[in-house]
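WARN  no MSA supplied for this record, continuing single-sequence
INFO  ligand: LAXINWYW
INFO  echoing inputs
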Amino acid sequence: MSTEGKTITCKAAVAWEAGKDLSIETIEVAPPKAHEVRIEIYYTGVCHTDAYTLSGKDPEGAFPIVLGHEGAGIVESVGEGVTSVKVGDHVVALYTPECRECKFCKSNKTNLCGKIRATQGRGVMPDGTSRFTCKGKPLLHFMGTSTFSQFTVVADISVVAITPDAPMDRTCLLGCGITTGYGAATITAGRGGIEEGSNVAVFGAGCVGLSVIQGAVRNGAGKIIVVDVNDSKEEWARKFGATDFVNPMKLPAGTSIQEKLVEMTDGGCDYTFDCTGNVHVMRSALEACHKGWGESIIIGVAAAGQEISTRPFQLVTGRVWKGCAFGGVKGRTQLPSLVADYTEGRLKVDEFITHRQNLAGINQAFQDMKAGDCIRCVVDMRAD
Ligand SMILES: NC(=O)C1=CN([C@@H]2O[C@H](COP(=O)(O)OP(=O)(O)OC[C@H]3O[C@@H](n4cnc5c(N)ncnc54)[C@H](OP(=O)(O)O)[C@@H]3O)[C@@H](O)[C@H]2O)C=CC1
Ligand SMILES: N[C@@H](CCC(=O)N[C@@H](CSC=O)C(=O)NCC(=O)O)C(=O)O
Ligand SMILES: [Zn+2]
Ligand SMILES: [Zn+2]
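INFO  complex generated
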């Protein structure tokens, strides 16, 4: 029996308040309104940004909310005026939408889209209301995606159809971590990606950092030096193509990580990437850049109230500080080609999955993520 136009009752992991475990609840998901799409979520990854918002440190975090932004599924129904996807399409949800009409979308300098950013940040759909209720109370949406629900509703500009040949328990990861790191190296850095032969340092070898390494390898980087406080990340980093590994905690007394990197690269790195969210690491990453042209790209999300600092002289002498969301990737236009890179063997995705959980085990997925041996945990939303 078709569910089109009807409210769907399903399970979701609800964050009732900051700092508390998610609660598996029965919720109601209203049908999509005009220019909205209802998706049955099959798989979702759990990203550090979900944990960050759940912790209460996100200035935009509000509760109760359905978190999750790394999801893949199948379109169940569409609202009036939706032409970009249809019922039955395999899709990835996009927390960075692409309307193709706003000044950001029309610019080739950014992937940020302004069309629904204000309502997305307030946890509501573009018309200012929620499609989720639980026990008679409305629940907020998260990052325009809310993939911790078996069914979710997103704006039509926040979803992209991909080939049904790609397994959804892998493509969900292209909804955030992998795309972010890979895009940062191949799109955001420099003028459209790292140039061949460039020396690169990647701070933090989690899902995002390992994906930066993949992008650096793809663009023919020279040295790819990984900096991580966790020695077990060396094996991971080398498996993805790193040429060197440095644990900053193990440097001789009096030697800073930036001094070490400058020495290893004859004057500094051409590109450095912060994939930790630690503002002190961000400073080191900037100061490890080569005088005159070195560029440092901030990817990590720092907690509310944290600020970056360095001597302005670092910038006066030609180092550049920049950053990106979702790797600079315009999701509706560019994600299908990343999926092709995966299905045709040019992009590692399977290798990132170290843990799996069912929806009922989603709190364990958050615990798994905090352990040093987890790169990504994929949650099967349809299994109890
Ligand atoms: N801008 C964007 O669009 C996006 C940003 N993010 C953000 O990117 C960041 C990275 O995400 P993810 O890869 O999943 O995170 P992980 O925690 O998996 O990886 C971070 C790695 O950095 C290591 N680390 C921690 N402190 C330091 C330090 N001082 N110096 C060097 N290494 C350190 C960690 O070690 P240990 O394991 O011991 O803690 C870990 O190995 C997060 O802040 C996340 O919120 C994520 C997706 C998109
Ligand atoms: N809400 C936070 C900022 C969180 C943030 O920076 N999110 C990234 C994506 S992180 C994904 O895992 C992002 O897309 N930023 C751009 C944006 O427009 O939100 C805060 O208010 O500090
Ligand atoms: Zn994320
Ligand atoms: Zn736009």
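The first strand starts at residue 8 and ends at 14.
INFO  checksum written, moving to next record
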